[in-house]
Design a protein that fits this description.
The structure is a single chain. It is built from 6 helices and 3 strands. The protein is globular and about 30 Å long. By secondary structure, it is mainly α. The protein has 2 domains: about 60 residues, lambda repressor-like DNA-binding domains (434 Repressor (Amino-terminal Domain)), CATH 1.10.260; about 30 residues, no CATH class. About 50% of the residues lie in helices and about 10% in strands. It starts with a helix and ends in a 9-residue tail after the last strand. Helix 2 packs across helix 3. Strands 1-2-3 form a 3-stranded antiparallel β-sheet, with no helix packed on it.
Length: about 110
């Protein structure tokens, strides 16, 4: 999958339309459209801004998922949570342990 398609996939995963995503990234809608069509590459400032939304920028650029993106997105989807701890391939949130595949989650 190409970078532009991974960017679109991440935008949809976050739950934003192109206009909202462009605004959050500090660009015009035409730039966002060009990024997602593969006509133009985003700059560093844009990538930094969208990473603050929970976008997995490593995935967009390389195709490899970053483990660090899991907790912010979970928090964004389910509200503020405390005590987020990465444990191998799992995430512990308070008394809840979520297995992210392959590792042993632990109950906190």
């Amino acid at each position: 999958m190409s970078k532009n398609l991974r960017l679109r996939e991440e935008r949809k995963r976050i739950g934003m339309n192109q206009t909202e995503f462009a605004e959050a990234g500090g660009v015009q809608i035409s730039a966002q459209t060009n990024y997602e069509r593969g006509v133009r590459n985003p700059d560093w400032d844009y990538l930094e801004r969208i990473s603050d939304l929970g976008v997995d920028v490593l995935y967009v650029v390389t195709g490899r998922r970053s483990r660090a993106v899991e907790a912010p997105v979970f928090s964004q989807q389910y509200g503020k949570v405390g005590n987020v701890v990465h444990a191998g391939d799992g995430v512990s949130i308070g008394d809840i342990s979520i297995d992210m595949g392959g590792g042993k989650g632990r109950k906190k």
